[in-house]
Structures are given as C-alpha cells and as structure tokens.
Amino acid sequence: MPRLPLLGRLFFQDYIALIVGFVALAFENLIHLIILCLPKSVINWFYKRSRVIFHFISGAPQDAAEEKKRANDVLNARDFDELCSIFGYTPEDHVVLTKDGYLLGLHRLPAKRGEKNPSPGYTTGKPVVYLHHGLLMNSEVWVCLTEAQRSLPFVLVEQGYDVWFGNNRGNKYSKKSIHHGPNTNKFWDFSIDDFAWHDIPDSISYILDVTKAKTLSYIGFSQGTAQAFAALSIHPQLNDRINVFIALAPAMNPAGLSAPLVDGLMKASPTLLFLIFGRKAILSSATMWQSILYPPIFTKFIDRSLIWLFNWHSHNISTYQRMAAFAHLYSFASVKSIVHWFQIMRNASFQMYDDDVLSPVTRTSVSSYRPARFPTRNIASPIVLLYGDSDSLVDINAMLAELPEHTLAKRLHGYEHLDVLWGRNVHVDVIPEVLGTLNRFVRRDPEDSKLNGEAAH
C-alpha cells in the first residue's frame, strides 16, 4: 500500500489508527473532567451500578472463602505498609536523594512475621536482598499476593534476609524532586538512562550505607532487570557491590507487541507517543477508572488488554489473585520511558535513549549514526535468568548473546511474564530457584561468589 507524504514512514491504516487514538484519548479526557466535577455519592452510584451489571451478565459470585477474603483485604489495602500488615509484617520507610535531585521511596522488611526491628534504620547483620519492580509498577507488586508462601519477599524475610524494595522516580512512592514539581514537563523528562545512571546505584549506595553490608543481592522483575543490566554495564564499580543478580522475567530487547497495529505504529515513529500522551506521565487516568469500576470489571479490562497487547492469558494466575494484584499493578511512569522502549524494539538493540528523535531511520550498509548501546557484555556480577517459555517479551537466545559468558538461564515451563510474580505455583517453581541461587552466591566466602565459567550459552 502506498505511503502518505506526511510522516512518510506510516501507512494509510496507521493514520486511521492514529486518528482513532486521538478521538479515544479526547473522549477519555472529557470523561475524566466530568468525573472530577461529580460528587463522591454519584461516583459511588456508578460503582454500585457497574457491580450489579457485572453480576447480571456473569451470574452470582461463587464464594471461595479464605482466598476471597484475603483477596479483598489485598485489593483494599491503600499502600505498601497496609499490604505487609495483612500478613503480620512491619516495614520501614526510607527516602534516598539521587544525585540529580529526585526523592525515591524505599521500603524495608528487616524482621520476621510478628517481630519488629529493635534498631530501625540501622544494620541487622543479615544478608541484604534488594528487589526492584517493573514498568508502570511500584514496590507493592511484590507483596500483593493472596498467600504469604507465594510472596518472595515474605519467604526471604523468614529465611533470614534483610529485604529492601526500590521505587523508580515518578511512581507512587517517588513523585518528588527538589528541582521540579510533578506537574511540570521537566519532572517527567527521564528514561531508562536515568534509572541506570542514578536511581539504581544511588538506592544501592543508600542501602549499603544503612546496613553496613559490603554487598547485596539484586532481584529484578521485567524492567527492573533491564535497569540492572544497564546500571551494571555503565558502572563497573557497582559490580563489586552486587554478589548476584537474579533476573525474573528478564527484559532487554523484546521483539515487540502482539497487537500488530500498535506495534507497527510505535516502531515506525516512537515519538508519536509524545503527540498522543504528552510529555508527562502516561496513562495517568488509570487510577480514575479503577475508582469507578467494580473490581471484577476492572480485572476483565486488564485481562483483555494483556491478551491484546502481549498475548498473555494469565491462566496460571487465579481469578482472585488477579483481582487483588491488578489493583496494585499500575503506577506512574514517564511517556519518555515508554518511547525509549519502542526505540529499543525498533532498532533491536538495548540502547540508550536516542535524543535525535526526529531524524528518519535509514538502513544502509554503512550507518552514519548509531545511539550508544549499553555494554552489557562487560557485566562482572553473577547473573541468573529465570524466564517463562510462554513469555512474549523474552527472546532468551537474543538476550544471552548480549550478556557475558558466565550468565546462567533457567526456563520456567508454561510461564508467562506476570506468572513469575503471581502464579499459583511460584512457591514450587520460582521461589526455590531464587533461594537456591542466593544460598550459592551469598552464604559462602565472597571470593567464591563469582561464577566459574558455567555458561548458559
């Protein structure tokens, strides 16, 4: 099909999709404005009506006793502290100031269930584990499970670890800067580069200063792994501070989305996202829809979106677990960080953000320009990948080709992306692998904590 002259990389159907997107976005903004003007009683009426309609269509709800009650408790928890208190844990809150002026919220679980740290904000003498969330998420995704035995951090705490949780700039717990307010474009002018240059190393430095530990173990999920790949590749000294890096559902250079139209449109011109969503936070109205929709309806909407965009069907995650976890799934992220991911997918390269966004991409035998790539083969820390073989975002062979020879990879049969966090059998398939890896690299002489040529290639 011939291309139109304007934005010549787009096809005619791409323009149709773009126009439809603008109309849908305008309609959503109108709805958002109307809802802001409505009294709470009216909003509650819409919420109750959506519940009645849902039960009329799907039938009366079936009672699942304990799981249903726990799911409701998790769903209604307002923040990280309340989620932990459901299971009897008392977290600590910390704040770290990055070198470029962002204030990041950190959480810590220093003591076992029912216990408290006698010296808050100080060392426990335990081995330290740091967990970092994925894209459009915050630290709550680690603790919003309906059973404590399936929650990795709770298991780690009971095994004697000092567990810390990070948060990216801009999300629910890190929406502050000493230089710019969150309503300015300047505040949201960050990408994966900034996570790697500042958020990850500055958070780790703070944690090691508080705990007096020499090293910690890093466990990342999805984009949390990409941020570690990037940070370790550009900060050689950081490798000496991480005794092992465990990557859950690792992300580096995904092939793309399962929705062909969206995938093609964004790869053709990633900066169209700026045109559609602006230059601040993306999908900021998600919390509005969550507040007015009955939770099972909101869950159905997320389910359909995940199938359409990523071909994830979530068969390994129970209905109640999805309802509980999806309420804590979304957190604020910059449009620029999403644009960065589409640049990575378009160029099939784990690269730094391309500031030359307006130049056309030309593929010739000799290129005159190439965005800087993260030198991930230079990572010295031990790396263990735990990936699902049904995860559309993981091309394990392409990933291993960009990582050092000492990388180990473990396949999780039948697992999709989110299954690694919330699957019904993570306590059987995932958590034991994590514990085994930590026992191997943490609880022994530091000199032996490096991999000795055991490659997954």
TrEMBL record:
Pfam families: Abhydro_lipase (PF04083). InterPro entries: AB_hydrolase_fold, AB_hydrolase_lipase, Lipase_euk. Keywords: Hydrolase, Lipid degradation, Lipid metabolism, Membrane, Transmembrane, Transmembrane helix. It is a single-pass membrane protein. GO terms for biological process: lipid catabolic process. The chain crosses the membrane at residues 15-38. Residues 81-144 form the Partial AB-hydrolase lipase domain. It is found in: Membrane. It comes from the Eukaryota. Its main location: membrane. Belongs to the AB hydrolase superfamily. Lipase family. PANTHER family: LYSOSOMAL ACID LIPASE-RELATED. This is Partial AB-hydrolase lipase domain-containing protein. It comes from Candolleomyces aberdarensis.
